[in-house]
Fold this protein.
Amino acid sequence: MPAHSIDFQINPGVFSTPELVQVFDEKARYQRWLDFEAALAEVQGDMGVIPQEAAAEIGRKARLEYIDLESVHKKYLHSRNSIIPLINGLRGVCEKGYGEYVHYGVTTQDVLDTAEILELRETLALTYRDLRALEMICLDLAKKYRLTPEVARTHGQQALPTTFGMKAVVWLGEIRRHIERLAYISQRISMGQLGGAVGTMAALGPHAMEIARRTLNLLGLDHSNVPWHNSRDNIGELASIFSLLVTTLAKMANEIVQLQKTEIDELREPVPGGAASSSTMPHKKNPVICQRIIVLSRHVRYLTGTILESMAHEHERDAGCLWAEWLAVPQLCIYTGAALRYMLDVMSGLEVRVDRMMENLHLQKDMIASEWLMFRLSSMIGKMKSSTKLRELSAKAQETKTSLKNVVMEDPEIGSLLASEELAYLDHPERYIGHAVQIVDQAIEDIEKKRALDPERF
């Protein structure tokens, strides 16, 4: 019976996705190990290191369907090595004694690291696909709501008018940078491992470099002339990029949670028809999916810390560091993918409550455009004097529950400086959005140009 939420079967997919679970599936991983052995044998056969007949037999039998997995399972109960039981299973099904040429001249970590890179390549492809889909959704939101006024908040308080399109392009900027980071790391990470016991490739013979290069090329990977058995910065970099990505998702999710609060109610997470979010309060529509995104982001950051700590290897191989990394990587990838899929679901059905945004913008009436008034007065009485005066008048308006406009007009010092027609601008804070629309339009144009240059897939 599954004991981890990633593998749950009765309630699956709460903190995972079917695609990523399949990427890191036990049998899929074992098949990647066998693929490594088949590629190695093929190259060694071509180069005369092992008999070509042996290479062909290993290639034919390096499939899980030929392996006695029950026997492999029993051997794992008494093995301390990650791959020996499976390797012995392959050796056992190879005819004419050709099994002795399986795993010829390489070490366990070569297989495990190369398989991990293949898994990360698949993970990056899925992440890139979904992140570009999220970018497209946010682009559409920015276009649709480029003119939609909304109050901006700083320090948790209403600040000045902005637009919802402006909020969307801020999200877009981060998403675009994450896409660029994925493109960069996908190239850097595509480096398999084939260094032998301590990285010197001694057992591979005089043509070791060529064997390594050709073997990894068969698997779609590059070869590093310098082994990276104990050099894990590329893995740490990828984990850090995923941590940055999910933190953006968490920021977006938290913004929706905050703006879905009953007292604000400007955004709402979509709720599938008839779905209940509270067991006892039928009136509630809890932002459950956004909260899950936030939780997943925390776990990814914690796992990233584990992976970064695992970079501090001792000597040429440090199993304690390696196992910490190997345990953390699948979880980190699955949680990142799950958070991204959830965000796609949320953003594709996000309810934008335009009327409520306008109501909240006028909640403090003409007070919300006090910055406009301060700079209007600054040209007449100076910036500092204008600021001090308006703080006094704003406090007075709040205490007397009257409009700032009336308090200003009644003030003996500045009341005569502005005509009532001019002060009427305070009644329309939706006009005081600065260059928000221009910023949104420019951001949309820039991102669309970059999207046009993106590859369809990695």
